[in-house]
TrEMBL record:
Known partners and oligomeric status: Homotetramer.
Organism: Edaphobacter dinghuensis
Enzyme Commission no: 1.2.1.3
Keywords, sorted A to Z: NAD, Oxidoreductase
UniProt GO molecular function: aldehyde dehydrogenase (NAD+) activity
Coiled-coil zones: none
Superkingdom as given in the UniProt entry: Bacteria
Similarity comment: Belongs to the aldehyde dehydrogenase family.
Span of domain Aldehyde dehydrogenase: 30-489
Lineage of source species: Bacteria, Pseudomonadati, Acidobacteriota, Terriglobia, Terriglobales
Database matches in SUPFAM superfamilies: ALDH-like
Stated name of the protein: aldehyde dehydrogenase (NAD(+))
Length: 510
């Protein structure tokens, strides 16, 4: 790789950051070196927050909340509408930055920003719909109702694979609900976070009167995340990452009775039934298993195929896995970009070595160097044919590995599907109504997301996103996920002159 190409990548990144309104001091000085997975080179240096700065930011966020909660919800919605406009105007620029920092395809980088626009539209509309129930009272001349109030400061800890969309799922809802937010992004993707913070500040300036500290960015290591988790000023923490991270975070939050939204590991499966439309299934499997180089929490990792169609489907899958273009995600025709870093590559190879030792047949999985660059880690997605769902199959490896197994009876397919610790996303491909309905029933998929004839990846913002078991149980984005960011009070109003007690209790005094 030439010196010119190194300068070019760094200059391109800095140009994008300038267009997005990020001051140069935020990316050309500091101890945290930022690498692009496209080439592996350093493209920026970012200052990190220390303990004192984090404490100050959390305190400022709490003060901002005390002011922001009194702003009427529809007016808070106007801020989110303006933020959505900033994202819309910045879509190509921010989308390109997402690709450079994560290695996603350009269409995926653009799609992530589109998700941010969509959740802002959703949240702005939601600002006029925070309605509580009116409940019939058993007492005459009494009215009982529910009221929803802002909760407080929301801590957001996000992962590298969706560096900005997950923040927006939480922040758009939290802000419109009347909360303040404190955000710790992944140390691997701080540049997109700086850009989003700059765009928020633009929207806040247009809105006017936004209290200082309403949305705060804290770039740092695990110690900063620990401060967010431990702070009594933060009643809700939304954390996205590994199950191991969740095991560390959850007890800390429970200890102080704080709320948790945990989006943790996924080990997602699809069942391919005899009646499946194989052309449709093949396309869905390809994107779900290989999109984002297998680095989505919703990535398809297990394929459970009926024995009658197994040979046909596997032959077609092998052709796709062998022919798919791995390379620069900014170039037309590329469908698989790089892994985020060397650590991810070694984790993938360790998993494949374990599969190989167990007698599995592996297609793909090798490292490729489409850019002729030894610092980047591009791999061909791996198709692993295995006879049983062993312990290593039940573990999530955050890489493009698809384990394929056979089944003969539908009940056995469901058993295999559910016999993993994780419970995020799932899919079935069938034209048999009974199979589809059973998969969606209480005896079917045990995941938070269950799909019929579409893949496991690519959720829309209108539905609540999240999973069960070791995936954490949290819900973000659409539906009624907003309720987690607010506190509910039950109100009873007596507009009469008597004081009847509930349940017929009598308590008469002279």
């Amino acid at each position: 790789m030439t010196t010119d190409s190194i300068v070019s990548m760094e200059q391109e990144t800095h140009h994008l950051l300038t267009l997005l309104g990020v001051p140069a001091s935020q990316y050309n000085s500091g101890n945290l070196a930022v690498h692009t997975p496209l080439t592996g080179e350093v493209i920026a240096h970012v200052p990190e927050a220390n303990t004192a700065a984090a404490t100050e930011a959390i305190t400022a966020a709490h003060k901002a909340f005390l002011e922001w909660r009194t702003v009427p919800a529809p007016k808070r919605g106007e801020l989110i509408r303006l933020l959505g406009e900033e994202f819309r105007a910045a879509l190509p620029t921010l989308g390109n930055l997402v690709t450079i920092e994560t290695g996603k395809l350009l269409s995926e980088g653009f799609g992530e920003v589109q998700e941010m626009i969509d959740i802002c539209t959703f949240a702005a509309g939601l600002s006029r719909q925070f309605a509580g129930l009116t409940v019939p009272s058993e007492r005459a001349q009494h009215r009982m109702m529910e009221t929803w109030h802002p909760l407080g400061v929301v801590g957001i800890i996000s992962a590298f694979n969706f560096p900005v969309a997950v923040w927006s799922w939480n922040a758009a809802l939290a802000l419109v609900c009347g909360d303040a937010v404190v955000w710790k992004p992944s140390e691997k993707t701080p540049l997109t976070a700086l850009a989003v913070q700059a765009l928020f500040e633009r929207a806040a300036a247009k809105f006017g009167g936004v209290p200082h500290g309403l949305s705060t960015l804290l770039i740092g290591d695990a110690a900063v995340g620990q401060q967010i988790v431990d702070s009594p000023l933060i009643p809700l923490v939304s954390a996205t990452g590994s199950t191991a991270m969740g095991r560390a975070v959850a007890p800390k939050l429970a200890e102080r009775f704080a709320r948790a939204i945990l989006e943790l590991g996924g080990n997602n499966a699809a069942i391919i039934c005899p009646s499946a439309d194989l052309d449709l299934a093949l396309r869905a499997i390809a994107f779900s298993a290989m999109g984002t180089a297998g680095q989505r929490c919703t990535t398809l990792r297990r394929l459970i195929v009926h024995e009658s169609i197994y040979p046909t489907l596997i032959a077609r899958l092998k052709k796709v896995f062998a022919s798919i273009v791995v390379g620069d995600p900014r170039k037309a025709g590329t469908l698989v970009g790089p892994l985020i870093d060397e650590r991810s590559f070694h984790a993938m190879q360790a998993a494949l070595d374990e599969a190989r030792s167990s007698g599995a047949t592996i297609t793909g999985g090798e490292r490729v160097n489409p850019l002729g660059d030894s610092l980047a880690f591009y791999v061909r997605p791996a198709l692993v044919e295995i006879s049983a769902q062993t312990e290593f199959v039940k573990r999530e490896t955050f890489a493009p590995i698809l384990y394929v197994m056979k089944y003969s009876r539908f009940v056995d397919a469901l058993t295999l599907h559910n016999d993993v610790p994780q419970g995020l996303s799932s899919a079935i491909f069938t034209t048999n109504l009974r199979e589809a309905e059973e998969f969606l029933s209480v005896t079917g998929s045990d995941c938070g997301i269950a799909n019929v004839n579409i893949g496991t990846s690519g959720a829309e913002i209108g539905g609540a996103f999240g999973g069960e078991k070791e995936t954490g149980g949290g819900r973000e984005s659409g539906s009624d996920a907003w309720k987690q960011y607010m506190r509910r009070t039950t109100n009873t109003i007596n507009y009469g002159h008597e004081l009847p007690l509930a349940q017929g209790v009598s308590f008469d005094i002279e």
